[in-house]
């Protein structure tokens, strides 16, 4: 099954991507994680992306389209994949169509702006393995340390309150129109993501079968 997870930053796409990945044994592909990895490794692409990411802006379409084009050719995508954070603009969605990639389902996780701001301010991430935590809702066993790989957890620069507002604005202006794009194809399912993670997961799993 080829899936897209849509939703504002902090809506819980990454967490749901992990759950679906476990259930269906298909890879979760996060352009945000791939860009952060490139930044941490100091690659040319990482350096190029850094100023956009730190400012809460979108990285240019051609960069992320290039990343996805290459990633989807990997052998582990043969039986399906979950895209988390791509596409984020109409041209990115059109690029997927032009690549001949068939999308079976698009799950849109809906969360209010107020809730998003609270979630992002408490989010902590592991830059080494990409695992995410929340100081209140999903705390690591040891404060500040990644359960999965033992590396130090940090707050993303773009999760700071002033940048979060820019990211939400970008989301509403550039990414939300994708809902209509995929609704018109009859493959959009909207999931309420406001409450407990387990409830959102149950709704997401249901939406995969509808
Ligand atoms: P995320 O971890 O998905 O919230 O992504 C973090 C940041 O990476 C975003 O705020 C953008 O700056 C950049 N980014 C990730 N995915 C994309 C994309 N599909 N298009 C443009 N920029 C992206």
From TrEMBL:
Q: What is the documented function of this protein?
A: Catalyzes the reversible transfer of the terminal phosphate group between ATP and AMP. Plays an important role in cellular energy homeostasis and in adenine nucleotide metabolism.
Reaction catalysed by this enzyme: AMP + ATP = 2 ADP
Which NCBIfam families does the record associate with it? Answer: adk (TIGR01351), PRK00279.1-1 (NF001379), PRK00279.1-2 (NF001380), PRK00279.1-3 (NF001381), PRK14527.1 (NF011100)
Please identify the protein, giving its name as recorded: Adenylate kinase
Example GO CC term: the record gives: cytoplasm
Concerning PROSITE patterns, the annotation shows: ADENYLATE_KINASE (PS00113)
Pathway assignment reads:
Purine metabolism; AMP biosynthesis via salvage pathway; AMP from ADP: step 1/1
- Binding positions (AMP): 31, 36, 57-59, 85-88, 92, 156, 167
């Amino acid at each position: 099954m080829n899936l897209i997870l849509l939703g504002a930053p902090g809506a819980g796409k990454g967490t749901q991507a992990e759950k679906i990945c476990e259930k269906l044994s298909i890879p979760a592909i996060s352009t945000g994680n791939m860009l952060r990895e490139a930044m941490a490794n100091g690659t040319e692409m990482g350096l190029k992306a850094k100023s956009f990411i730190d400012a809460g802006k979108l990285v240019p379409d051609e960069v992320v389209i290039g990343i996805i084009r290459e990633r989807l050719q990997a052998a582990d995508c043969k039986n399906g994949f979950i895209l988390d954070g791509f596409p984020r603009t109409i041209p990115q969605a059109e690029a997927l169509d032009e690549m001949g990639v068939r999308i079976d389902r698009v799950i849109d996780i809906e969360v209010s702006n107020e809730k998003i701001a609270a979630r992002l301010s408490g989010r902590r991430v592991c830059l080494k393995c990409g695992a995410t935590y929340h100081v209140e809702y999903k705390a690591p066993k040891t404060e500040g340390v990644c359960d999965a790989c033992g590396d130090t957890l940090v707050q993303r620069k773009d999760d700071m309150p002033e940048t979060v507002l820019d990211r939400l604005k970008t989301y509403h202006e550039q990414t939300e129109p994708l809902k209509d794009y995929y609704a018109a194809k009859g493959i959009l399912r909207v999931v309420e993501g406001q409450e407990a993670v387990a409830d959102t997961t149950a709704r997401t799993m249901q939406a995969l079968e509808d």
